[in-house]
From TrEMBL:
Pathway: Porphyrin-containing compound metabolism; protoporphyrin-IX biosynthesis; coproporphyrinogen-III from 5-aminolevulinate: step 1/4. Belongs to the ALAD family. It is an enzyme of class 4 (lyase). Keywords: Heme biosynthesis, Lyase, Magnesium, Metal-binding, Porphyrin biosynthesis. Homooctamer. GO terms for cellular component: cytosol. The active site is at K201 (schiff-base intermediate with substrate), K255 (schiff-base intermediate with substrate). It catalyses: 2 5-aminolevulinate = porphobilinogen + 2 H2O + H(+). GO terms for molecular function: porphobilinogen synthase activity; zinc ion binding. This is Delta-aminolevulinic acid dehydratase.
């Protein structure tokens, strides 16, 4: 001992489990999770999605069962996405405004089964309803037009709110849609319906399995780069968030999740609002593929990635692993 050993030993507090628990800076709980669910036609249907192993489309009656399961697990909110049959799709996504579409029926079924014990978040964008798979209306050149699309999205949002949706979540990235939707919700008396904006949503290669799940992969030609953000940008994400908050968003989202944790942190530091992150379908598939290949322990990968979102400053995470993760957390 010649005095060269450190007095400060960060390993000291890591020695025992109790001590690690005591100095832990972030915690994970089921209340951090939002569970995305895919709705399909029929009764008593579970339709597995090949590119999302372990995730299925459920018929409306089964969605109500999943909602009860979520309540018992302590998950506070579900996010709904429809698998719209090809014959109900058209150029303007008109089925998005139909009060009897899968989203509205599923929302009503969840509210009937669980009331205010769970929140229902409904995605606003036309891609599950268009026959071209884009999120909005096209002009003659195939460009997604902004303002006419916003009008259509307002109709979709009001339709969802009328069916009992608690949180309207526009994922389309049109300019001005948050303000237009907020104004319409107020006008129609939906003053307590929240808006969670997909504020910083990137044109990402991680959405592939989702497009399978909603049935738009084969329909989509080209990409969504004229409206979704360039993965090279992060200052622009702060402008998007600022605009959506000014237009009345109650909370904001960053999407995808893990590759964009720097954006989650930047938004958390710049704005004092609830920030959510979406661990998207391609991220889920990557974890499942890694586990299946023996490259890592599935449960550990799931919990570590979810904790990373908390560390980055997210208030919560949309994840297809929600039910499994909640079970792990509940022990
Ligand atoms: C629709 C929408 C997408 C996702 C959520 N809402 C796909 C897209 O923008 O092409 C992706 C979610 C996921 O990959 O899990 N606008």
């Amino acid at each position: 001992m010649d005095g060269t050993y450190p007095y400060t030993r960060l390993r000291r507090s890591r020695t025992h489990r109790w001590s690690r628990a005591m100095v832990r800076e972030n915690a994970l709980a089921p209340s951090d999770l939002i569970w995305p669910l895919f709705v399909t036609d029929g009764t008593d249907v579970e339709d597995p999605i090949a590119t999302l192993p372990g995730v299925s489309r459920w018929s409306v009656d089964q969605i109500a069962e999943r909602a009860k399961e979520a309540v018992s697990l302590g998950i506070p909110c579900l996010a709904l996405f429809p698998h719209t049959p090809a014959e109900k799709r058209d150029a303007t996504g008109s089925h998005a405004r139909d009060a009897d579409n899968l989203m509205c029926r599923a929302t009503r079924a969840i509210k009937e089964a669980c009331g205010h014990d769970i929140g229902v978040l409904t995605d606003v964008a036309l891609d599950p309803y268009t026959d071209h798979g884009q999120d909005g209306l096209l002009d003659k050149t195939g460009y997604v037009v902004n303002d006419d699309t916003v009008d259509a999205l307002v109709g979709q949002a009001l339709n969802q709110a009328a069916s009992g949706a608690d949180i309207i979540a526009p994922s389309d990235m049109m300019d001005g849609r948050i303000g237009a939707i907020r104004e319409a919700l107020e006008r129609e008396g939906h003053t307590n319906v929240q808006v969670m904006s997909y504020a910083a949503k990137y044109a990402s290669a991680f959405y592939g399995p989702f497009r399978d799940a909603v049935g738009s992969r084969g329909l989509l030609k080209g990409d969504k780069k004229t409206y979704q953000m360039d993965p090279a940008n992060s200052d622009e994400a702060l402008r998007e968030v600022a605009l959506d908050l000014a237009e009345g968003a109650d909370s904001v989202m960053v999407k995808p999740g893990l590759p964009y944790l720097d954006v989650v942190r930047a938004v958390r530091d710049a704005f004092n609002v609830p920030v959510f992150a979406y661990q998207v379908s391609g991220e889920y598939a990557m974890i499942e593929a890694a586990a299946a290949a023996g490259a890592g322990d599935r449960d550990a990968l799931v919990l570590e990635t979810l904790m990373a979102f908390k560390r980055a400053g997210a208030n919560g995470v949309l994840t297809y692993h929600a039910a499994h993760a909640a079970r792990l957390m509940n022990g």
